[in-house]
Design goal:
The protein is an alpha+beta fold. It is built from 23 helices and eleven strands. It has helices at residues 2-14, 16-36, 51-62, 88-102, 141-156, 176-193, 196-224, 230-258, 263-290, 298-329, 343-352, 356-366, 368-383, 404-416, 436-448, 481-501, 510-544, 548-573, 593-621, 626-653, 661-693, 702-707, 716-723, and strands at 72-78, 107-111, 125-132, 160-165, 391-392, 424-429, 453-456, 460-461, 467-474, 504-508, 589-590.
């Protein structure tokens, strides 16, 4: 591996113009395809095998034209203070608003509050149910404008009018906070390298890789039915790893220059050693992201594969475009005062002024037990809130209080009870029953006898008369544990109805779908962990030629991810520091969050493990003692790993300012997880454990040693070839210095 990447790096350096041109042309081609693509993102969530999904499919088949997964709008009305909606003027104004909405070309039906019996007992609040024949993201701008104009008309008449549902949902956009994250990354790079060229190179190459990956996702959005958050996730991951991977190769190149190697040879050595670490670190991230497919939720699979594709591009950019750009920069990538310094002078300067990484590693080596206990206990305390983790999907009740969706949610809850915002749909498939009417009636009566139900509507049959639909309004809010218990109770009773009548009774609706998603993700979390950790364990065993080092890496990851989950629960569920992070409404943690956090953090955590520990392994292989190799690894890698972690934290933290609840939570979770993993686990626990293990850290049973392929990540065989004079030629063109 090291030899192959050594040659690839030198080829890219020598043919830098050609390599750069190929990447720029690729960016232009994919960007052009994205610009001409007119497809929109998918807003539907399909959960194969769940009861809610089966019921949706049954409704779509038996009630033609209803499109149960189409966009909806709940237009909430409130009469002026001291008046009622039933007053003639207010009633007329409501009718005009609903009539205006009903004329929309994509509107399937719009039921006014009086016809739909959706007026509160005191007559002050009502809502109109609007159903569209297409998904939310497929609604035209004309349809949204018509809805907003009708709402404005009602407000002009003196009514309070707010709109809930997903009809006003739009694609989330990148905001200024994300840009601030990139600016912070640039500042960290400038401080780390002390040279503008070196600081700018990782940013430019990462942006090129992200530009290609996001453009490809945009162009394929309609074909693959990708979710609207997929490009944002790809941007988040691609930018973070792209900067980090380039950072490690540029840093190693500068170190090789400092040892007296010519630029052409230095870039080959950097690509062969740091490039090998980049490839295997990237593989761990790709495994973690692609492994999301085991959950069998199509939207999650597509998001994981799209983000994995962004990581593949980041790795390819790092091992080809970065060496090419280094060729243009030459020795200008060093600070001006270091360009004329000899290798001996550089070594003396490093010996005279040991860096912070060297001093920290020596401190840990003096007190490994104390440092280990303090770190583990600290993460354990931070993980305590995770024991109260509650999962759910976000609804309008989780939106900021200044949005019309949230205000509509609050109005409906005030007038009709919180459960009205999350009605359940019960389908009675009586096609194989001898008495469809009796089965539907039996179902409705059984549901009315359950605790926690506010209302049950009479059964409504399809044209064939073999399937009934019953609307059930819970007494509790959609995201409350009581509603989840109610759904499970309804399904338990449904089994008895099926046994007595032969009708198949299914519970669905967006609330039930969210519960099914949470249950399915809960069930998939342990198998996913086993798959990802198992595959990555094998990969790290190949990289480090050790059993204990990969085991330590996996256990450290578990500590950091559980502590990160604890922080997410404390902020987003308990409300600690909610104002600081812009969390206006607390509630259950998003169902996708734990499995996303596990997958992404595992991949990113292994990045730091590979980058830091490969330098230790390299020093150990080249003859240093275990303790000396730890100090050497930190002296070469701690500064760069610190910079890489700060860059990732700043990039992820930039997404905390997003108005999209899922992006905000993922940004916070990833930022805090990288903070814990990089600075507590990799920079503290890792050297403490390695110090206690000594030589046994690098032990590998002889049969395994023979069976596992030797990929030479530390560049031992490459170094032997270079010492023997193989592959050691000068660049035939100027170095750019």
């Amino acid at each position: 591996m090291a030899t192959l990447l050594y040659r690839l790096g030198r080829f890219a350096f020598r043919r830098r113009g050609l390599v750069a041109l190929v990447w720029v042309l690729l960016l232009a081609a994919v960007g052009g395809a994205a610009a001409t693509s007119s497809s929109s993102a998918s807003s539907s969530i399909s959960i194969p095998g769940t009861e809610a999904q089966q019921a949706f499919e049954l409704l779509d088949e038996r009630f033609p034209g209803t499109n149960p997964e189409g966009a909806t709008a709940r237009v909430a009305f409130q009469a002026p203070e001291g008046e009622q909606l039933t007053d003639p003027e207010n009633r007329a104004a409501v009718g005009e608003v609903v009539g205006e909405i009903a004329q929309g070309s994509q509107v399937q039906q719009a039921v006014d509050p009086f016809r739909g019996r959706a007026v509160s007992p005191d007559g002050t609040i009502g809502y109109a149910q609007v159903n569209y024949d297409t998904s939310a993201l497929d609604l035209t701008e004309r349809s949204r404008t018509a809805l907003e104009d009708a709402v404005a008309q009602g407000r002009d008449a003196g009514l309070t009018v707010e709109v809930g549902g997903d009809a006003l949902m739009t694609m989330p956009e990148t905001g200024t906070t994300e840009v601030i994250g990139v600016v912070v990354a640039a500042v960290v790079l400038l401080i780390t390298f002390g040279a503008l060229v070196a600081a700018g190179l990782p940013l430019v190459t990462a942006l090129i890789g992200v530009g290609i990956s996001v453009s490809a996702i945009t162009a394929l959005t309609g074909v693959l039915e990708l979710d609207s958050t997929t490009p944002i996730l790809a941007t988040m991951i691609g930018l973070a790893v792209g900067i980090d991977y380039a950072l490690f190769i540029v840093s190693r190149y500068r170190a090789e220059l400092g040892e007296g190697h010519e630029p052409y040879d230095a870039v080959g050595r950097a690509a062969g050693t740091a490039g090998s670490a980049v490839v295997f670190a990237g593989l761990t991230v790709i495994i973690a992201l692609a492994g999301l497919s085991v959950v069998n939720i199509p939207i999650l699979t597509k998001m994981g594969l799209a983000a994995a594709g962004a990581v593949v591009l980041a790795v390819l950019v790092a091992v080809t475009l970065v060496p090419a750009f280094v060729g243009f920069a030459g020795t200008k990538i060093l600070p001006r005062k270091q360009r004329d310094r000899t290798a001996a002078e550089t070594a003396r300067a490093a010996a005279d002024r040991p860096g912070a990484g060297t001093r920290w590693s020596r401190f840990v080596l003096r007190r490994p037990v104390l440092v280990l206990l303090f770190s583990v206990v600290g993460l354990g305390v931070l993980a305590v809130p995770a024991t109260d983790l509650r999962l759910g999907l976000p609804d309008d009740g989780s939106k900021p209080t200044d949005t019309t969706e949230r205000r509509a949610y609050d109005l409906i809850a005030e007038g009709f009870g919180p459960g009205t915002n999350g009605p359940l749909i019960v389908t009675v498939d009586a096609a194989d029953s001898g008495d469809p009417q009796g089965a539907a009636k039996r179902t409705a009566n059984t549901l009315r006898g359950l605790d926690g139900i506010a209302a049950v509507t009479p059964p409504r049959f399809n044209p064939a008369g073999d399937t009934a639909m019953i609307n059930v309004v819970p007494a509790s809010a959609p995201s409350s544990p009581a509603t989840e218990d109610l759904v499970h109770s309804m399904r338990d009773r449904a089994d008895g109805i099926t046994a007595d009548t032969g009708a198949n009774v299914l519970v669905t609706g967006q609330t039930a779908m969210g519960i099914d998603v949470s249950d399915k993700l809960d069930a998939a979390l342990l198998p996913y962990l086993a798959l990802v950790v198992g595959l990555a364990f094998l990969l790290l065993m190949v990289v480090f030629r050790s059993i204990l080092v990969p085991l330590k890496a996996a256990l450290g990851f578990l500590l950091s991810v559980v502590a990160a989950l604890g922080a997410v629960v404390a902020v987003f569920q308990w409300g600690w520091l909610a104002d600081v992070f812009g969390v206006q409404q607390t509630g259950p943690v998003m169902s996708l969050m734990p499995i996303f956090l596990v997958g992404l953090v595992f991949g990113l955590a292994m990045d730091y493990e590979v980058f830091l520990v490969t330098r230790m392994r390299e020093a150990f292989v080249h003859g240093e003692s275990p303790h000396e190799s730890i100090v050497t690894g930190f002296s070469h890698g701690a500064r760069v790993v610190t910079a890489a972690a700060l860059i990732m934290i700043s990039v992820f933290a930039g997404f905390i300012g997003s108005g999209e609840a899922m992006i905000k939570m993922i940004g916070f979770g990833l930022a805090i997880a990288v903070l814990f993993d990089a600075f507590v686990v990799r920079m503290t626990i890792v050297p403490a454990v390695l110090a206690l293990l000594g030589r046994s850290a690098w032990w590998l049973p002889r049969p395994l040693d023979k069976a596992l392929p030797n990929v030479d990540v530390e560049g031992e065989r490459l170094q032997q070839r270079l010492d023997e004079g193989a592959d050691h030629d000068r660049e035939p063109v100027p170095s750019g210095s």
